[in-house]
């Protein structure tokens, strides 16, 4: 039986998009889903302590305002509380909230149960964090209508096996699927049909685009670029004036719904790194920092894919004479945050250039001293309460 036919009008496709939804094996031939567990840490706490289901709940930090929010349930989110916010601000916005310390072991157990359940439906998966990951639906769902029906089966299976809610985005590539999974939370499914990627992304704020870090966001907004569609519309000269090199080209491709990445098989690593050799030697500090920001984003993404976090950050530089220098720093707490890796890597780069100024042929960013499970610390210990 075709899953799509059993879905009927519940599929949510309009007459205009029905033919695209039912078209098998469109150009490219890949259907990717991104699955995100809804308010995962808070949801687990509510399962373990049912009395928390009806109150604003904040996971992370402490009620005295130190540390940061790991997540908040939807009652707390109505007051503007969100992840990565300082607990002091969360307390100010929602004084009645209940704060709980993260229960890492519980979260790991529930995560394993979730992904065991998913693999029983879709074997081709890539877990990218304790609460999210990608599913390759291509072999099981020849059309997007089938893919939508299959996603409903996945969502129902996760609920039945773990009592947890999840949201899914379905698209032709990873970046669009990831953004789509956030559109109908909690518990929703969003399908972006082939050919509609740019229209879907265009009105969204630039912060929604993976790869736009604080520095990139600042430069884009300074240039009057506020939406993903505005990034997609940039010509080569405009792009080079705002975000040059591979950083800008990569962001523009993503803004256009172009993302060739496939699912990666799981594997263990003792370190993760990314480096770039420049077409011409670089001396400009802002350009070098922009390159490091992009590399930090990639390294952080790979960390999350493995469910890991790192304590040691390394910056590697190669000068015009091919000599290589590297600088490292070990943090007080593990991190998988791109902003933290970027901050430290840039400081290490500046230190290397202070010790020995010169044009650079290559820059690399690496992390090591990995934890097997993703840590819940969102900032280094010495920054807690900031």
Secondary-structure map with pairings?
Elements: H1 3-7, H2 15-22, E1 32-37, H3 40-48, E2 57-59, E3 71-72, H4 74-77, H5 87-93, E4 98-100, H6 104-119, E5 125-129, E6 132-136, H7 144-162, E7 166-171, H8 174-180, E8 189-191, H9 197-201, H10 214-222, H11 228-232, H12 236-242, H13 245-255, E9 271-282, H14 285-305, E10 309-319, E11 324-335, H15 338-355, E12 360-371
Parallel strand pairs: 2-4, 7-8
Antiparallel strand pairs: 1-6, 1-7, 2-3, 5-6, 9-12, 10-11, 10-12
Task: Note down, in words, how this protein is organized.
Mean pLDDT is 85; it is low at 1-18, 23-27 and 373-386. Helix content is 39%, strand content 21%. The relative contact order is 0.12. It is built from 15 helices and twelve strands. It has a five-stranded mixed beta sheet with strand order 5-6-1-7-8. Strands 9-12-10-11 form a four-stranded antiparallel beta sheet. It folds into four domains: 16-39 and 105-194, 2-Layer Sandwich (Alpha-Beta Plaits); 47-103, MutS, DNA mismatch repair protein, domain I (3-Layer(aba) Sandwich), CATH 3.40.1170.60; 200-255, DNA polymerase, domain 1 (Orthogonal Bundle); 271-377, Dna Ligase, domain 1, CATH 3.30.1490.100. Helix 14 packs across helix 15 (338-355). The longest helix has 21 residues, at 285-305. The protein has helices at 3-7, 15-22, 40-48, 74-77, 87-93, 104-119, 144-162, 174-180, 197-201, 214-222, 228-232, 236-242, 245-255, 285-305, 338-355; strands at residues 32-37, 57-59, 71-72, 98-100, 125-129, 132-136, 166-171, 189-191, 271-282, 309-319, 324-335, 360-371.
């Amino acid at each position: 039986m075709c899953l799509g036919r059993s879905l009927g009008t519940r599929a949510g496709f309009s007459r205009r998009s029905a033919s695209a939804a039912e078209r098998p094996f469109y150009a490219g031939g890949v259907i990717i889903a991104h699955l995100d567990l809804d308010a995962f840490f808070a949801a687990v706490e509510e399962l373990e302590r049912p009395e928390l289901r009806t109150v604003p709940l904040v996971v992370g930090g402490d009620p005295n305002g130190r540390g940061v929010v790991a997540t908040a349930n939807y009652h707390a989110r109505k007051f503007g509380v969100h992840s990565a916010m300082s607990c002091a601000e969360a307390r100010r916005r929602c004084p009645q909230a209940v704060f709980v310390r993260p229960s890492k072991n519980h979260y790991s157990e529930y995560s394993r149960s979730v992904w065991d359940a998913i693999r029983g439906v879709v074997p081709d998966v890539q877990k990218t964090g304790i609460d999210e990951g990608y599913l390759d639906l291509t072999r099981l769902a020849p059309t997007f209508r089938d893919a939508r029906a299959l996603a409903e089966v996945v969502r129902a299976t996760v609920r039945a096996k773990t009592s947890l809610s999840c949201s899914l985005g379905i698209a032709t590539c990873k970046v669009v699927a990831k953004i789509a999974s956030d559109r109908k939370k909690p518990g929703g499914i969003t399908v972006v049909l082939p050919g509609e990627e740019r229209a879907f992304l265009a009105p969204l704020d630039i912060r929604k685009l993976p790869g736009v870090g604080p520095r990139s966001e600042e430069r884009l907004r300074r240039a009057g670029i506020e939406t993903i569609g505005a990034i997609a519309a940039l010509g080569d000269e405009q792009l080079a004036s705002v975000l040059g090199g591979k950083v800008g080209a990569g962001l523009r491709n993503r803004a256009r719904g172009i993302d060739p990445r496939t699912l990666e098989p799981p594997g263990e690593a003792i370190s993760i790194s990314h480096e770039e050799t420049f077409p011409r030697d670089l001396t400009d500090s802002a350009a070098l920092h922009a390159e490091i920001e992009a590399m930090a984003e990639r390294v952080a993404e790979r960390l999350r894919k493995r469910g890991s976090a790192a304590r040691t950050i390394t910056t590697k530089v190669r000068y015009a004479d091919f000599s290589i220098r590297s600088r490292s720093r070990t943090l007080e707490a593990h991190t998988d945050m791109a902003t933290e890796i970027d901050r430290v890597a840039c400081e290490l780069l500046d230190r290397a250039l202070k010790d020995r100024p010169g044009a650079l042929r290559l820059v690399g960013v690496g992390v090591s001293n990995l934890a097997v499970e993703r840590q819940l610390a969102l900032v280094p210990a010495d920054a807690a309460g900031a």
